[in-house]
Design brief:
The protein contains 14 helices and two strands. It is mainly α.
């Protein structure tokens, strides 16, 4: 009888996605004080709202005067999660912090929502991850199955597949939702975005960006290029793996440019994590440890310094 096998999900590939998600939320909490994160929103109320399910968030457990204390406690949790230590025990607290940020701060963006969804799915993967660090290579399949962890491996792979479908649908929706707008259809949308007062390019970058968007070919390329990448990412699961590897750097550069121009860095970290889950093979191990060891071996060691004996002055 043919034996069916599944990839082992506990590898450094999904661990790198965990780290990126934790760093994105960490940046939001570490570089924004409580007065910035929690404020009153017109027609809605004072955040955190603490209504229904959102009342379980971390910032609803303390008084307003202790928001900064809770903020730094959440930063500590995120630092531990980003380090990769004991993913089995740190994944659920990480997901809880992501939920608390998304439901608690007054102006969450799409990156906070994506982070919450992906950290929840990754927590399902991490429940079966017995490694000390998520940077370590995964155990051989035979060993994992002999320990009765086949069900946990199946749950982990299933969670990653759900995350991949989520990312594909997200990119499809992002592309299709732009098409009915005339500015995206005629290729001029990025002209208005980069000159927007709230989300436009920073002052130091605006001359260079304006030189591109004021050229008809340049603004068309900047507007339609992201649409092409997004629809390709939406169809990535139907493509061979070698094509996905080509899409990965293009998509990473796309979100890097959005972060630099519009300042949406937490969004970029969330999307980079999602891209790894979407485009890398299931159970992928990029071999980060081997890469670091190879770099360290190529670094020449400093030559030892030998002290020359001091010659006594001659009396002759």
């Amino acid at each position: 009888m043919r034996r069916r096998t599944i990839p082992i999900p506990w590898a450094a590939g999904y661990g790198l996605a965990r780290t990126l998600l934790a760093l994105g939320t960490l940046g939001t909490l570490a570089f924004s004080d409580a007065a910035t994160l929690f404020r009153e929103v017109a027609t809605v109320g004072q955040y955190p709202l603490c209504r229904g399910v959102t009342a379980g968030g971390a910032f609803c457990l303390v008084e307003p005067g202790h928001y900064d204390t809770m903020r730094w406690l959440c930063c500590l949790v995120l630092l531990v999660a980003a380090s990769g230590w004991r993913p089995r025990f740190t994944a659920v607290p990480h997901a809880y912090v992501a939920f608390s940020v998304f439901t608690g701060i007054s102006i969450p963006d799409g990156g906070d929502q994506i982070t919450w969804v992906l950290t929840l799915l990754i927590a399902v993967v991490a429940l079966g991850d017995s490694r000390r660090w998520h940077w370590q290579p995964s155990s051989p399949p035979e060993r994992d199955l002999s320990e009765g962890r086949g069900v946990l491996a199946l749950l982990g792979i299933s969670a990653i597949v759900v995350a991949r479908i989520q990312m594909a649908v997200l990119y499809f929706q992002s592309c299709v939702a732009k098409l009915p707008h005339a500015e995206w259809a005629d290729g001029t949308a990025l002209y208005y975005w980069v000159n927007n007062y709230d989300f436009g390019a920073p002052g130091w970058l605006r001359p260079a960006v304006n030189a591109i968007v004021q050229n008809p070919m340049g603004v068309a390329a900047m507007t339609w290029g992201p649409l092409v990448i997004e629809i390709a990412l939406a169809a990535a699961l139907l493509m061979p793996q070698k094509v996905r590897w080509i899409l990965l750097p293009a998509a990473v550069l796309l979100h890097l440019s959005i972060a630099v121009v519009m300042g949406l860095w937490s969004f970029a970290f969330a999307m980079w994590a999602g891209l790894l889950l979407l485009l890398a093979p299931l159970g992928h191990d990029p071999g980060l440890g081997r890469i670091l060891r190879a770099v360290s071996r190529r670094t020449p060691a400093p030559e030892p310094v030998h002290d020359e004996p001091v010659k006594e002055p001659s009396l002759a």
